Amino acid sequence: MSTLLLAFVLAASYYLYSKRNAGKHFPPGPKPFPILGNIFDLTTHELWVRITNWSRLYGDIMYIHVFGQGLVFCNTAEVATDLLDKKGSIYSDKPHLIMTGDLCGCENMVAMTRYGDKSRRQRRLMTQALSANACKNYRPLLANESLTLIRRMVSDPSKYLAYLRWYAGGLTLQSIYGYRADSPEDPFLMLGMDCVDILSNKIASGGGIWPVDLFPFLRHLPSWAPGAGFLRKAVVWKAKMEEFVDRPYELVKQRMREGTAVPCFVTTLLEDIRDGKEASEFDAQRDFDIRWTANSMYSASMDTTITVVSHFMLAMLTRPDVLAKAQSEMDTVVGSSRLPTFSDRASLPYLECVMSEVLRWGVPVPMGLPHRLMEDDVYNGQFIPAGTLVFANIWNMLRNEELYPNADAFIPERYLEKPPKHLNLSEAEEQEWAKERNPRNYVFGFGRRVCPGSHLIEESLWIVMATMIATLDLDWTRDERGKVIKQKITFDNAVFRTPSPFECDIRPRSEQALRLLNSVESSL
């Protein structure tokens, strides 16, 4: 009986989909199967590579569907800008995913919130805490935590990834909740890492679309029924996610009542309310918004930081000549008697190029996060139905050979180049050419859902890279004969392009560098 019912629902869905879209000219894409669509064309492993390969066949914009749920891939910056930026009023929604939102409890996270009053309130809170000027207040914390990270790495290079997770999670806990994680086994740190892993590798695997999102009646299955394993998982995952939303937030409120709270994102917003700057009294909606916005900041920053720093280390291991050149610039500008500070940034242009190339070469979130089209649209004569999920293929944009010749190679010098003379560009056009090549215009997303934490993430990444270049030498692990031990690097995260763990040798550049690491407290 259940098989017949499912067959009927599939047939009815296909009939309605076909009738609604009959005669419409969609963007090109691989041919779908009847009813099933392109479900067998998708993969949870490096989907961005498959989409990029398709782009060579189907062009700058592609369309596929899974059981009638449309997916559009913007394979160039021009298409992404035309749709997500210029038409942001209809392309800024987020999909209502039953599994992710209703069943797993993530519908109130900033990255998942539907476009409207709630999303605007949340983004205002994040902008208040994470604007370029506001991020300067975090600089002493960032500098000291980066120094602590590097000290730990030097003490035991084999645990670099554990220390990096400790740094990324601990830094975020401290800046958001004023909570210091004193060990890698800290309960809040472990809870946060569990939740980020659940979100990116379980809930959002395969693009985050589950059968229940396509066939909502499945949510009403008994939890013991065959095929209802997703319901049992959702119960566990939702409890874990809500625990991480509530526990650190309630701890901040308790510490504020006791007078022991450390200044942080949450205390700033709560004090504004208490002092009457934001509202005459603390209301439930405001409490709800701060609670979920704070948690969203943690979830967004942790994997991004781990991914980009890991790519930086890989780049320095792969291109030791780049590391040596960056170290030479550092020695000239900063010297060996102190550590770099944020005030040195403008005087270290090659390091800036290295950072830009790490963002481009590593591509931390290759497909971005999906936008949802709120009404039917037509782009260059091609029909895109309302409800379509739209992805920016950032991987393909940052592998554009016209903008980045030899795009698979790590070449920081490309950002020091002038435009080819045959282009005969004016000064204004040269500036536009340089802007087009800046990876920051792509890696943080497009439109009204661009990452609001980009300033803090960039500041954190810069001081880590600067301090590592100033104090460390990195090399691949070698055997007893001195030969490099070959390692295979894979990318298994469904959302973030995080490299698999690798073995490397991390040691101070010199005795003076070791003394700095052991004795200097960063100050700005």
UniProtKB/TrEMBL annotation:
Protein origin, superkingdom: Eukaryota
Protein name: Cytochrome P450
Lineage: Eukaryota, Fungi, Dikarya, Basidiomycota, Agaricomycotina
